[in-house]
Amino acid sequence: MHALALTLTLAWLQSPGPKELGLVAWGRDYQEALHAAHSSGRPLLILFDEVPGCSTCVHYGEVVLSDALLVEAAETLFVPLAIYNNQGGEDRRVLELFQEPAWNNPVVQFVAADGRRLIPRLAGDYSTSGLAAAMIAALRTAQRPVPEWLAIYAAALRAESAPRRTELRAMGCFWSGEACLARARGVISTRTGFVEGHEVVEVQYAEAEIDRAALEACGTQLRGNFVPSPKDQLYHLRRSRWAKLPLSPAQARRVNAALSASEDPRPFLSPRQLASTER
Length: 279
What we know:
Layout: H1 2-13, H2 30-40, E1 44-49, H3 55-62, H4 68-77, E2 79-84, H5 89-97, E3 107-111, E4 122-123, H6 128-141, H7 148-160, E5 164-170, H8 174-182, E6 187-195, E7 198-206, H9 212-216, E8 220-222, E9 227-228, H10 235-238, H11 249-260, H12 271-278
Parallel strand pairs: 1-2
Antiparallel strand pairs: 1-3, 3-4, 5-7, 5-8, 6-7, 6-9
């Protein structure tokens, strides 16, 4: 673990790369990337980008390509390669090989070690949810495992971008109620609290994504003046060894639910999150 901690420390001390490329440790040599894909079995994640680039390129780098979980996914589940679409030389050769236009907004392609495109190119969607969904589709096409932590993050990002509703669910104990709701597909957020003395959970969910049967299994719908109780939020997580981990809201809910049921929460944590608790 000391070697891992040193590696992570050195990574943070390195000079930042172009802001258009975010925080991903990109390779820049196509042949080396192909060799790494062959030896590891991981698909290539190729970013075709304008560097230096326009505001769209900068935003994609500073937001999507700097998202901690997506950065980890790019670096550990794929072989990341950046090709500048406004340069000559080897960059231009690879650009032409994949028939990508020059001086263009960011495009992502997922490619097998034999150069075969795994899924349609990701173009025109500059969102975190778009990249997360494409990562999962590429892994499945390549018959590579999709880790649970990435799957729940992608589902949460998709739900957050959809129209949503909020309702109150009453149950005997809001600790178990919140844990129950965390397992329902389409849930975006939960808050514990009271309505006229009843323990309730305020749940916000994506209308098109929600598993209505799972929602109905978590208490009874109630209306009234909701008074939040922050000290009871994520009760089991806040009293665990995982409490100080930087988790996405979806991860926090699923870890809390696992702990509530005395289950192992580690499948919902990324390797780097797990490593940070062991140093």
